TrEMBL record:
It comes from Streptomyces rimosus subsp. rimosus. Its EC number is 2.3.1.-. GO terms for molecular function: acyltransferase activity. This is Ribosomal N-acetyltransferase YdaF. The gene is ydaF7. Residues 1-26 are annotated as: Disordered. PANTHER family: ACETYLTRANSFERASE (PTHR43441:SF10), RIBOSOMAL-PROTEIN-SERINE ACETYLTRANSFERASE (PTHR43441).
């Protein structure tokens, strides 16, 4: 039986982000540039997820399970539930004005009480090489820190994935260390870099 002094309602440390901020709001569309935006996933984007789960680089680094078009629609519905359950905020990286999706960026493993979350992203080949992963990571970080109120954002990637390391550096996520044998990929266990930014860290120069 819980004693009154250990009851969560008497905790001396309040939640970093009070519950309800995502649950009671609609997921916003966030502008990246005149050409690109982050918008909520739509059922009509299902084929983009099917393609992502067949792209060799995304399969290798992000390890998604293969999905059928129906499975992809279920996944998109799941991400919308995760927003309202305050567990994750996942956007499509897309052309401006509701254009076609070319990738995914967002935060999962969200802990509103503790004030932290972890980044995830991938781009189909058509979206790569245009700085979209950096701009999406910075834009979502600004939203997560300034609008949602999170304190710490983590980003981890295999040490064998220099493109992802560069995205982290350019988005202002400092390297904090290497986690040994941290994630199992198709070719075995990989060491992972742990990067993070905390509220108050500088924002990268938009150029
Ligand atoms: C990683 C990924 C998201 C990068 O997105 P992107 O928008 O294409 O990134 P860019 O092409 O703008 O490159 C970002 C930086 O990485 C560098 N880079 C790209 N490929 C690289 C490579 N193979 N080796 C070293 N650096 C690389 C670019 O030169 C750029 O740095 P710069 O701005 O200093 O020149 C994208 O390549 C991708 O989805 N890859 C497959 C899946 C994946 O790796 N997911 C991440 C899992 S953690």
């Amino acid at each position: 039986m819980t004693s009154p002094s250990s009851s969560p309602t008497t905790s001396p440390i309040p939640p970093v982000v009070p519950a309800g901020r995502l649950r009671d709001s609609e997921q916003p569309t966030l502008t990246l540039s005149t050409d690109a935006e982050l918008r909520p996933w739509r059922p009509a984007d299902a084929q983009v997820l099917v393609a992502a789960c067949q792209d060799p680089d995304i399969v290798h680094w992000n390890r998604p399970a293969r999905v059928s078009p129906n499975g992809a629609r279920d996944k998109i519905a799941h991400w919308h539930r995760r927003w309202h359950d305050e567990q994750a905020a996942i956007w499509a990286v897309a052309g401006a004005g509701g254009g076609a999706a070319v990738g995914l960026a967002g935060i999962g493993d969200m802990d509103l009480r503790g004030g932290s979350a972890e980044f995830l992203y991938w781009l189909l080949p058509a979206g790569r090489g245009r700085g979209l992963a950096v701009s999406a990571t910075v834009r979502i970080s600004r939203w997560a820190v300034h609008e949602l109120g999170l304190h710490r954002l983590r980003l981890s990637h295999s040490v064998a994935n220099p493109a992802s390391c560069r995205v982290a550096e350019r988005a202002g996520f400092r390297l904090e260390g290497t986690m040994r044998s941290a994630l199992l990929h198709a070719d075995g266990w990989h060491d992972e870099h742990l990067h993070a930014r905390i509220a108050g860290d500088d924002w990268p120069d938009p150029a």
